[in-house]
Design brief:
With 275 residues, the protein is an alpha+beta fold. It has 7 helices and 7 strands; from the N terminus they run αααβαββαββααββ. The chain has a 5-stranded mixed sheet. It has a two-stranded antiparallel sheet with strand order 1-3. The termini are far apart.
Amino acid sequence: EPIAALSHAAKEVSQGNLDEKINEEIGWGEFKQLIAAFNKMTSDLKDYQVLQLQAQVSEMKEQVFRAVAHDLRAPLLGLQGYLYILQSGKASPQEQKEYLEQMSQAARNLSSLLEDVLDVSRVQAGMMNPRKESVDVPALLKNVTDTLAPTAQGKGLELTFQAEADRLPADPKLLQRVVMNLVSNAVKFTDKGYVRVRAWQDEKAYYISVADSGIGISEAEQKGLFQKYHQVRSDRPGYGLGLFISRKIVQAHGGTLEVSSRPGQGSTFTVTLPK
């Protein structure tokens, strides 16, 4: 009996179940000592596993805090610098206009970062509740592409949209947030070629896709793509929150957000909202 119990417990532990305990009363003599040693081993392993997990979580938090602090500090220092110059009265009218535009951009960057952090909190608290209304699809896609057109043109990219659906029921602000994030990511990870946005419908659902000719994503990278703080490329700006928030927004609408991609062959992200 004690040998069978030890054999069964060893199999459980080998499969990662560290809660497996053996009743020491079924043993005697050296069997009892062996069972006690086995139980202590599993207990120590579980404690070690918890410590490892805590260390990993702590390291992840540190990485996130460092990234967020860095991106908060840069625009704040920029704002302080421009304010100092403007207060000195030494800037020409043209320079004042340029500095004010730079300050405005820095403020928008700060607002975007803080909005992402707040949205993660809302998602985790279950407070992401869409207020659905009839959304003008062509107007939404035009607004997104017009906003990102300067960035795309600066990289020599072809940014276009095609609206084959006129209206769909959704929260306009949240839906625009999703599309803006997907198109922004496509522009960021595409160095040449195109970014194409398309909306259409069939008898079952509404669809919005964002396709690009960018770097692509491997199958291994796709597995963690929609997790918090996950970044495909650490050399590109971002916090790894956008796709996590976007999928949660789409899921709150009862839909799905999926990706199809291969390295070097671009990516296509598709939002599906069932009718």
